[in-house]
User: Fold these one by one.
Assistant:
Number 1:
Amino acid sequence: MEFEKIAEKLGLDIEDIKELFELYMQTTSADLESLKVAIEAGDAELIHKKAHSIKGASGNLYLDELYGLAKEIDDLANANSLDGLADMLRTLQYKYNEFVEKFDKNS
């Protein structure tokens, strides 16, 4: 992960982008937990809400892979098509964990 490139795209210094990523991780971690509960309950509206939140935050920070995965879940929830979402959530969680590890290594 190249913090400098993302910071430059957003017009921020490196310390500001790190603070944004820390906030992103706190929020996204909670959203992922809520998303898991929503998928287990089959609550399409809550799935949409939480996936949409993750999608937006990821997109705003140029985290394209996380954005894409959250968008897929969001789109399916909007279509009330809940099959396969548990597997998609596992992939999203895995990629999120990879992001956190990279962030921790570079901080």
Number 2:
Amino acid sequence: MTDRKTTFPFHKGWLIAWLVSLGTVLTLTHIPQAAMPEFLSEHMLDKIEHVLAYGLIAFLFLLSLPEGSRPTTFVIGLVGLAVIGAVDEITQPFVNRVASVGDYAADVIGILLAVAIFLVKRRFRFDTTSL
């Protein structure tokens, strides 16, 4: 009989932060439009919010992955997040909000920016124990 130790494939703290942020964003995007401050839809502020929100969610997901994770896990997670963004937009009319291709594009841009920042961070990581 072999003693197999089963490990959880994510960093729990980052995974929890990812789930909380995802839940928060999905809740906020389903507040009826009439309850939202009007200035948020002016001057493209809502697009910046989408970039930041989905960028944060993607970055937290990437941080939750342990070192040496398979690239397929990386890709499936990010594609899954893009699908969640699409479903998020598609379901907004059910709560008197407007689904927007522009908002979805901003979600995807946020995801891609998070990936770029994560990859740069990983590439230029340095040992802080010697400082």
